[in-house]
Amino acid sequence: MPRPPSTEIQKAVDLLRQGEVIGMPTETVYGLAGDVFNESAVQKIFSTKQRPFFDPLIVHVANAEDVHKLVEDVPAAAQVLMKNFWPGPLTLILPKKSSVSDLVTSGLTTVGVRMPNHPVARELIQLFGSPLAAPSANLFGRTSPTTAKHVQDEFKHSVFVLDGGPSEIGLESTVVGFENDTILIYRPGAVTAQMARVALVRAGISFEVLEKESNVAPGHLQHHYMPSIPLIIVKAGADISEVENAARPTLKLSEWRPANLNLHSDPVIAARELYSGLRRCSESGANVIVVEKSQRTENELWFAIWNRLEKAASLSLV
Ligand code: TXA
Ligand code: MG
């Protein structure tokens, strides 16, 4: 994994201290990071992303001390998940301290917290000495970036980006909330429901784990992660001329120049390559992307991959 020179990391820290936002590599996707306790930096995250204020940010920490700057209380089940999956692709929604502004949480009483497992992100947060708010570094509703170049392209080189190499996981973190004796998976990711269940049972904690989109965070919208040209989901082995006949009127396409998105058969690699694949198709000269819905369900990571593809799609013909 390429490591930016320490002068680059220091430059990023200096910019963050000045209230700027910067591109930060993480193992899931790249983030657009700013000082969570600097209101104007947080404003800048929303304005740079063109993100509506109703969609709350998640906050990145480097150690347990940082967590206590943000949250009132860490329930026992959350402690078990932290111990098992941090640093890593898991965001926990916890009751916030009053020091975390309503702007960060969109007025919710909870805040999303994650400890990323990327050496550059960890070094950056340690050196900065305080937690960083960071949504994925893409324009609102668009495909998340998994390389430094994706971030530079997205913001037309107006944002300083630390290059930590391609994101290893390639999908945004699993987002988990706690309601009574239930753990709700608001957004599926590389930490799966089954992995959470096993960790909780081993710790002797009885908690139900359910997949359920959040109705408290309006950020979980129907359409998200969208490439710059429409994406169509079709049945495996679908006849492409039938797809064309069905899709062209619906999507009002005057031409038909499809690009196929081929998913790798290994879900770990399919996840890692998903967003760069969508970008490659968008930039290929095609005007529509077609992906075949496979029947592969043996691995829960496919669930997260298809969650993203379904939200990214303009049309589903399955
Ligand atoms: O892997 C990731 O999570 C990446 C990297 C950069 O860490 N970040 C990321 O952030 O995907 P973002 O903002 O694109 O997605 C965070 C999701 C949003 O859907 C938001 O609605 C949800 O987390 N969220 C944040 N705070 C929440 C809260 N207090 N309650 C419920 N959902 C929340
Ligand atoms: Mg995002």
Radius of gyration: 20 Å
List the secondary-structure elements in sequence, H or E: HEEHEHHEHEHEHEEEHEEHEHEHE
Count of alpha/pi helices? 11
State the separation between the terminal residues, measured CA to CA.
39 Å
Strand content: 15-25%
Taking pLDDT < 50 over at least 5 consecutive residues as the criterion, the unreliable ranges are none
- Ligands, ions, cofactors: threonylcarbamoyladenylate, magnesium ion
The overall average pLDDT, rounded, is 94
Q: How many runs of DSSP E, i.e. beta strands?
A: 14
Specify the structural class: alpha/beta
User: How would you sum up the major sheet?
Assistant: 10 strands, mixed
- What percent of residues adopt helix (DSSP H or I)? 25-40%
Shape: globular
Largest beta sheet: what is the strand line-up? Answer: 7-1-2-6-3-5-4-8-9-10
Question: What does this protein look like?
Answer:
The longest helix has 16 residues, at 267-282. The model has no long low-confidence stretch (mean pLDDT 94). The chain is an alpha/beta fold. β12, α10 and β13 form a beta-alpha-beta unit. The two termini are 39 Å apart. It is built from eleven helices and 14 strands. The protein has helices at residues 6-17, 39-49, 64-70, 76-85, 102-105, 119-128, 148-154, 193-202, 240-251, 267-282, 300-312, and strands at residues 22-24, 31-35, 58-60, 90-95, 110-114, 132-133, 160-161, 174-179, 182-187, 208-211, 231-235, 258-261, 288-293, 315-317. The protein is globular, with a radius of gyration of 20 Å. Bound molecules: threonylcarbamoyladenylate and magnesium ion (MG). Residues 135-136, 144 line the site of magnesium ion.
